[in-house]
Amino acid sequence: MTMPVRAAAVVYTREDDVDAVLAAAVQAMSRAGMVIGGLLQRAGRPTAPGKREMLVRILPDGETICLSEPRGPGVQGCVLDTDALTRAAMAFRHATLRRPDLLLANRFGKQEAAGEGLRAELAEAIMADIPLLVPVRAEMLPDWRAFFGEPAQELPPTTGAILDWAWPLARDHVGGRKEFGAASV
To answer: Which of 21, 90, 157, 158 is least enclosed, having the fewest CB within 10 Å?
Structure first.
């Protein structure tokens, strides 16, 4: 008998503010007593037309890493700082070793689809059987499914959907509370 993998993709589009949704879910879960580890992404200041800093906060500690490389106002291509991504991957790996109640990855994106980025760390988290929540842009969903290899839960980008998914996983860790509290964003 095999145990079901406890992972979910939060599927979003460019129009969705998935970072705000995840921040609200992390806040609600933390308030309910869950220990959340991993990386929470948010946009920083504008750096070029249509570009903003990519910042990740290491959970639960709070240190922030800037994943984008300042390349000037005319930049049009990728601004990912691979050294910063490596530091974020190490922080994610450290969070996995601490075995939180839930791990949050900042994204499954182009780097992970290409076999790089946090791909190895995501696989380690899955193998460690730690509940894993991963934002996946809709156009990256086929790559996520190919990486994952079996059906993972796919959630809409709402705080309520995330909390509904996380609650059964958290019951043993939050002292029997009946709910997380205010939900949908």
So the answer is: 90
pLDDT in tens, 89-120: 999 999 999 999 999 999 999 889 999 889 99
Whether residue 180 is contained in a domain is answered as: no
> What is the reported pLDDT for 163?
95
Tell me the C-alpha distance between 108 and 113, whole Å.
7
134: in domain: yes
Q: How many residues does the chain have?
A: 185
Going by pLDDT thresholds of 50, 70 and 90, the confidence category of residue 74 is: low
The predicted model scores a pTM of 0.85
CB 95 within 8 A of CB 103: yes
Domain enclosing residue 169, as ranges: 7-173
**Residue 153 domain-assigned (yes or no):** yes
Check which CATH number belongs to the domain holding 28 and give it. 3.40.50.300
